[in-house]
Amino acid sequence: MELNDLWKTALAEIELNISRAAFLTWFKDTSAIEMDGHRVSVSVPNGFVKEWLENKYNKFVLRAVRNINSQVKEVSYVIGTKQLATQKNDTKYGLPTIARVSVKPANDISFSSEFELKDLNINPETSLNPKYTFDSFIVGSFNELAHAAAKSIVIKPGIYNPLFLYGGVGLGKTHLIQAIGNEIIKQNPKAKVKYVSSEKFMGEIVEALKNQEMNQLKEKYRAYDFLIMDDIQFIARTEKMQEEFFHTFNALYEKNKQIIISSDRPPAAIATLEARLKSRFEGGMIADIGEPDYETKLTILKIKMEKTGIVIPEDILDYIARTIKNNIRELEGALNRIVLTAKMNNCVPELEYVKKIISQIIYAPRKFVTPKKVIKTVADFYELSEKEILNKSRKKEVVKPRQIAMYLLREELKCSFPFIGEKIGKKDHTTAIHAYKKILSNIKSNLDLEEEIKIIKEKMYTS
Predict the structure, then answer these.
(1) Is residue 404 scored above 90 in pLDDT?
(2) Cβ neighbours around 97 below 10 Å, total
């Protein structure tokens, strides 16, 4: 495998572990440029991206690269050209060279183009990816309300303002909100539409404050007819970000401009979101996107398969659809791996080999989860410190998260009740049993609690 292909495959792995918005923000315009011994050098567009990848995403990058080539021990980031380095002596970086030219998609999509970053054609003015359309969005019972609301906004902007879509990682939120923007542009090319992730928005605020350009930034955002904000939950981290977005929201709302928002949870579950923002969000339409059913997953796989031009047996598609339970992104990631294997080996892998590929996707993250990780994830979700979870406080806002932590330690890690009691507050095992049974019972009747625990588990296994 050449260095270029190694990086593309690693990117597919990284995309499974972070939000789509974060992936597009931080991995756009990156490429592997050199492998020297056990170190891979990655080209990045600027110092800001370099620092962010080193501090926040390096473990994901290194793990993804090592899953492909275990000889790699280090990944470094270099500001500069995207051009790939010339291979010395035609070395293939310790990986077997496999002929790939014999398997060709029916529509002549090459190996390279199939696995390019998916945002190369992003509109620089709107930041919209043209591949996200209503036509390519698969509708099922799990997302039909969100889809109907999105279509309604295109027909009659302002009918739901804001439109707030929420759901777990990789379920199609980004696809749907960008489809709205692309359809608006298609029908009215003069409309001022802007898609932005909350992380990008926060980055712009930081830069504007540093350069004393806040007025220009405010004018920029308040000139849009449609503002599409992805992963809004991240602005709840700081008061300044919330304040700026609140004023931007009000300015647009008062001028009857459409606001579209996505999040991994409903407004009420964003613990540190200010009441005034919760009120604004809840004043529009809130729609959730759940997990797809088997029939929908099979349909998605077949449509994606047709685009590659490679025929994959029905039993393999059936196995993927029944085994991948979490999200559509994992589903596509599994299919991409199988397509990649087929193109490299000139044949579709057998079911037993596919099972090994799927097991890597499903089970690999779980080995990184420890009791400490569970407690930290729960604490972070509810904006508490780990110390508060572990102490003996009886405050309502602490008791519930503590019981959820106990429940997850038992349900996910299969810890014994005496261990759980000792780990959390040095309590008796009966306290742990009570907490586990209470949460188990409440989940059956409390949909909000079920959603919160689902989000916590996603973060626990993917961050």
Answers:
(1) yes
(2) 11
Angle of helix 198-210 relative to helix 239-254, nearest 10 degrees? Answer: 100
User: Residues of the chain with pLDDT > 70: what percent?
Assistant: 87
Q: Give the tens place of pLDDT for each residue, 426-461.
A: 888 889 999 999 999 998 888 788 888 888 887 887
The pLDDT of residue 237: 73
User: Does 37 count as an annotated binding residue?
Assistant: no
pLDDT of residue 340: 78
290 assigned to a ligand binding site:
no
- SS (HEC) of 349-373: CCHHHHHHHHHHHHHHHHHHCCHHH
Encoding tokens for residue 407? 């429940």
Residue 82 assigned ligand-binding role? no
Q: Which domains, ranges and CATH numbers included, belong to the chain?
A: 3-97 (3.30.300.180), 144-289 (3.40.50.300), 369-462 (1.10.1750.10)
Sequence-distant contacts of 156-159: CB under 8 A, at least 24 apart: 157/184, 157/225, 157/226, 157/258, 158/256, 158/258
As given in the structure block, the two tokens for residue 273 are 């979101």
CA distance 263 to 233: 6
Cis peptide before 162, with omega less than 30 degrees from 0? yes
When pLDDT is averaged across residues 230-242 and rounded to a whole number, the result is 84
Report the candidate in 262, 171, 371 with the shortest Cα–Cα distance to residue 270.
262
**Cα–Cα distance measured from residue 232 to residue 378, given in angstroms and rounded to the nearest whole number:** 19
* 174 marked as part of a ligand binding site: yes
Q: 438 φ, ψ to 5°?
A: -65, -45
Residues 361/461, Cβ–Cβ less than 8 Å: no
Find out whether 354 and 316 touch, Cβ atoms under 8 Å. yes
Q: DSSP of 361-405, one letter per residue?
A: HHHGGGGG--HHHHHHHHHHHTT--HHHHHS----HHHHHHHHHH
